Every structure is written in C-alpha cells, then in structure tokens.
Amino acid sequence: MSVLENLSLLQPLTLGSVVLKNRIVMAPLTRMRAIENDVPNPLAIEYYAQRASAGLIIAEATQISPLGKGYPATPGIYSPEQTVGWAKIVKEVHHRGGKIFAQLWHVGRTSHSSFHEKEGLPISASALKPEGKTFTNSWTFVPYETPRAMTILDIGQVIEQYYQAALNAKEAGFDGIEIHSANGYLLDQFLQSKTNLRTDQFGGSFENRTRLLKEVLKRVTTVFDSSKVGVRLSPYGTFGDIAEADPIGLFTYVIEELNRHHLAYLHLIEPRSTSAGADDKVAIEAPNTTSLFRSVYKGLLISAGGFDRESGEAAIKKQQSDAIAYGRLYISNPDLVERFSMNAPLTPYDRKTFYGGNEVGYTDYPFYGAQ
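Now predict its structure.
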C-alpha cells in the first residue's frame, strides 16, 4: 500500500511552542495498571514508546494527590518515586522521536475514601452525592459517598498540588501538561451548576465558578510556559452526574477566559457517551461541541470523541479542528499513524483488557504486517 502524502492528518502542526510531526494525537487513556504506591507500571515504558509516531501523546490521567485518586491502579505524579517512573517513560518516548504531555488530574467527589483513608471523604465544590456507583481500592463497585465541601484552605492546597505536579512533570521531562477540567472531575465540578452550589468567591457566577481553573492555570504557568499547557473540557458531558443549566453561556465564558492565557491548545470532548468505557453513542440532543465553540476559541483546537480516519480527516480539512485525539483505536493500533497513512486495516480492540491486567491487551497488539 502506498502512503497517502496529502492526508491532512499527516501534516505537521506547531502547537504552542511544541512542533508536532502530524495531527494525530493519542488521547489520555486510563488503563489501571500502575504498581504499588501509584507508580507507573514499567510496562508503560514500552506501551507509550510503541505509540511515539503520534504527533502528540497525552499520557493517561494522573492524580496530583492521594485525594485526587478515583480508580484502582492509576498512576500519580505527586511523589519522587512516581516522578522517576514517568521520567523513564518520557525518556523512551523521546528516544523514539515522540512528544508527550502529562495530564494532571483530580477526580474530586467521584473518588472513594478507601483510596485515602487517612484523608477521609472525597472533596468537591459542594457536599452533593453523585448518583451511581464508583470503584473502591479493592476493585469493588459501591454507591458514591457524599463528599466534603472544600474550604478556602482546601482550595489553596489543591492549587499548590497542581503546582507541585507541574514541577514533577517538568522534572520528568514532559514536553508540556494538560489540565483535566472535564468529565465530571474536580475542576468540572466547580464549573458546572449541578455540582457547585457555593455562595463564596468560587460559586454563583460564571466568573466565580471559573476561578479555580484560572488559579490553577496561573500557578502551573509559572512552571511551564502557557504555550506548553493545554486544557481539556467536556461541554454537554454527563459522566459523574454532571450538568449545567446554561452550557452555552458557561463554556463560552470559560473558553473566552482561556483565550487570555495563550495556551498550547484547547482539547474538547464530543458528548458521545454517558459512561466510562461505553460504546460510542451520540448523546441525545447534544450538539457538536467542536462546531459550537470553534469560533469562540482563538487558538489551536484538539477534538476527541469517536473519530475514525475519515471523520478526523474531514474535521481538519474543514478547519473545524487542528488535530484529532484518538483513544480506543490507539489501544489496539500502536502504529495508528502508519496505518492511517496507508489506509491499512485496523486491529479491533478487546474491551475486556482495557482496565487492569498485564501486557495482554496493553503492549502485545501487533504492528501492521506483523500479524
């Protein structure tokens, strides 16, 4: 098969101050394979390196503190041991010519106290229990707990934890960082009206609800230049029992505020599913997020959410997006860039091996021609 040189997905892109060799992004993918003390699994060195032909790898969501953890065996970036583990991964990705950002993560109220018995209950903008169930540290599934509403002191501590995580990411050699402000996690819980009932300077108006995100950005951009920082948002997403009374108004305001920061990119998730790991199903009556907010954001835009080669190519050609993030397709196709370039068939993924386990369904997917 011949390489399709004119494929828009294969064209280089300067993302802030980071030059990408193509516009195919590996989306952040939680795989629940970290080892003791939330250290990245040594298997992750090969896992990420196999996918280094991506224009950009956004590493799996990585908790900034014990209270930020919400799933078993997810890696952290708050300890020296974890930082060393990430440095080994970054070094090998760079050795193979790749670029990689860390995604900094705090799950807020979707955590469970079994992950942080010393610290107690999960924390959030308000003491509101989500509907549904969550994992415990022993991989059981139980109803959510009612979180503790964060004090101003708590908020200040979380901002400093983001700062320390950014310092650790820089020490590990990451090319940049992404602030995870989507999917019903902590920063999203402050943004959206269903989860933020505060009456202080972090609640009420759009300005107040956006304050924590802006304070986090202000702090982490003292570590990484803003041209090496991205933000992920999920307007119209419902995961984590999240919702907003005025999504267009809120996210227009948030994105206009992000314009002031001159970021590397904005990463928008299309509302394709309502539960983690669900098959692609377009949410009822949810608009196309990229189309809705493309004109609002003045910088570079990464779109994620059920794209294939054809739809991703079309989105870039129509200038709806500047790059496309692929998740599940990257799990089973480490050489996704090469397969797209040749229009080669894709290896189907095995959902049973998404979370937990060892190299099976992780580093053992074949490269094209090696099946």
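The first strand starts at residue 13 and ends at 15.
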